[in-house]
């Protein structure tokens, strides 16, 4: 549960002027370095007042990324997929087909100028999207990302279904979230995801929810509106 102060800060993530963020979906697989270049340029343009906000949904080919807090020992199979050093927060993550990556370029000058509230807002956005499928998810103290509790006869465990890692420059955010829709879960075994070895990784399909990527996108769009406000569809950036 959010504290009252944090809840108040999260409530300010919706722009007072009601201006919608642009919402773009790329088809196919977008190379990681190309995506980072687009984000860097767009974030700079937003900070300069030369462009509007952008929420960019895409998929990457299989790869690992290392955030600013990553530990070399958490890369268990360096030869398996390309490894990209990233300026975002967090540790090692996997990206690949079947996982919806969403890069979130928002102007926090218009959304409360509170990085902690932004992270909580991103988490609440994912939790709300999962709720559209009847999946109950939450955050855990001391653990990054969004988690689901799984139970069976005589056992229970918590698995991670989504990751959060952002960077903020001149009060403009970039990088963002990744939601596991139907990725190859074995690909996560080449790293210690987000530095947490004692828990597993899951996806919507692994939970028995046969969601398509389009259905996941719609759930994300609906939930985004509740946390961050309206969006307007646009063509994806050239990458």
What can you see in these coordinates?
With 239 residues, the chain is an alpha/beta fold. 24% of the residues lie in helices and 31% in strands. The chain contains 4 helices and 12 strands; from the N terminus they run αβαβββββαβββββαβ. The strands form 2 sheets. Strands 1, 2, 6, 7, 8, 9, 10, 11 and 12 form a 9-stranded mixed sheet that branches. Strands 4-3-5 form a 3-stranded mixed sheet, with no helix packed on it. α1 (4-11) crosses α3 and α3 (115-131) packs across α4 (213-228). The termini are far apart.
How many beta-strand segments? 12
Radius of gyration: 17 Å
How many H/I helical runs? 4
Derived from helix and strand composition plus strand pairing, the structural class reads: alpha/beta
Order of helices and strands: HEHEEEEEHEEEEEHE
* Coarse morphology: globular
Largest sheet data: 9 strands, mixed
Low-confidence residue ranges: none
Beta fraction: 25-35%
Oligomer: single chain
Helix content: 10-25%
**Cα distance spanning the termini:** 39 Å
**Overall average pLDDT:** 93
Write the layout of secondary structure elements.
Blueprint: H1 4-11, E1 21-29, H2 32-47, E2 54-59, E3 63-66, E4 83-85, E5 92-95, E6 99-105, H3 115-131, E7 138-140, E8 143-152, E9 155-169, E10 172-180, E11 200-201, H4 213-228, E12 231-233
Parallel strand pairs: 1-2, 1-12, 3-4, 9-11
Antiparallel strand pairs: 2-6, 3-5, 6-10, 7-8, 8-9, 9-10
């Amino acid at each position: 549960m959010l504290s009252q102060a944090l809840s108040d800060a999260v409530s300010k993530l919706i722009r007072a002027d009601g201006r919608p963020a642009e919402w773009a979906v790329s088809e196919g697989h977008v190379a990681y370095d190309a995506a980072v270049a687009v984000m860097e340029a767009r974030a700079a343009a937003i900070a300069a007042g030369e462009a509007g906000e952008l929420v960019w949904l895409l998929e990457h080919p299989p790869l690992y990324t290392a955030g600013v807090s990553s530990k070399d020992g958490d890369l268990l199979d360096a030869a398996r997929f390309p490894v990209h050093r990233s300026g975002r927060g967090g540790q090692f993550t996997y990206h690949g087909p079947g996982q919806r990556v969403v890069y979130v370029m928002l102007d926090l000058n218009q959304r409360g100028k509170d990085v902690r509230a932004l992270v909580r807002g991103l988490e609440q956005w994912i939790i709300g999207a999962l709720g559209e499928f009847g999946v109950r998810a939450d955050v855990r103290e001391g653990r990054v990302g969004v988690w689901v509790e799984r139970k069976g006869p005589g056992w229970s465990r918590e698995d991670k279904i989504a990751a959060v890692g952002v960077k903020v420059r001149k009060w403009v955010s970039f990088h963002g979230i990744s939601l596991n829709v139907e990725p190859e879960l074995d690909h996560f075994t080449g790293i210690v995801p987000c530095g947490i070895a004692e828990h597993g990784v899951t996806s919507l399909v692994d939970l028995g929810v046969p969601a398509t990527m389009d259905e996941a996108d719609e759930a994300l769009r609906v939930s985004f509106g509740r946390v961050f406000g309206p969006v307007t569809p646009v063509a994806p950036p050239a990458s």
